[in-house]
Sequence to fold (289 residues):
Amino acid sequence: MFVNNLKEVLRKCIDLYILRLFLPKRLLLKLFGYVAIGETKRLFRYPLWVTVDLVGYPDFKIKVDGNFNLPFLDNSLKALYSSHNIEHISLEGVHSFFREASRVLKSGGEFLIDIPCSKKAYSMLKIASENKSNISLKNYLEGLEITDYAFEKSTKILSSNSNYASDVIRHPYNMIINGIIASYMSPSYNSCLLPVIHDPLVIDEVLNKFSMDEFFNYIYDSIPFGYRYSGGHCEAWYDDKLAMLLFEYGFEVNIRQHKESKLLPKFLVPDRDYIRRDKWSVKISAIKK
Fold:
């Protein structure tokens, strides 16, 4: 434990002081023009990327209140990166984000996106409704969890959660819905993602009755009033929906794989080395026209 804590302290020192001393953000922007959005600190393994977030110790702090104002000049950046951020932002906020991305990127610049794919989650819900022993489903569920802590705190806000037994709480439907599609947060409980527990029989009915997007709306409507935009997963995203919105802001969109980029070599792409995250995600390369 002591050794691990010491390593973490040393890494923070390197991140906060040494990297910033020898690689100041203004120099990096001038030489490279790579900016990672939603990163709370300088990326230790990818030190050429300048970071932006509203919390932590990024190179630039911004406020997110429905409007993004990135602190960069028009047509000044070569690449933007965003990993598992957009699902936490309202649709209005994503419009603002993409508008700013188009403004600050140079023509031909690349916007790299990694986001939980709700369409994939929906397909897994359909599989779960037919065969809970499906191999692909079991692989997809690995790593998804509703912790005892998150469940306990959720009952303080949504008392109906306490009506469900353990097998319902950890039913594949609830693991997928709360892990990928929808969750909420409360500052009172260390800002962990809190679940809404659904009756599997009701979800069976809804899956058969509604289209995919109607199903997503039903799930978001079940989040406690006033909590949808509290920092959890508040909007369903997938390849077609992302592509349409990015096209609106002047981007040409392609699906990419882990570490793939139109402009950058693999060693510069700051995709996390999380195999589990990749199986839940869709990755996009968007080139500004």
Remarks:
- The first strand starts at residue 34 and ends at 37.
- The chain has a mean pLDDT of 92.
- The chain is about 40% helix and 15% strand.
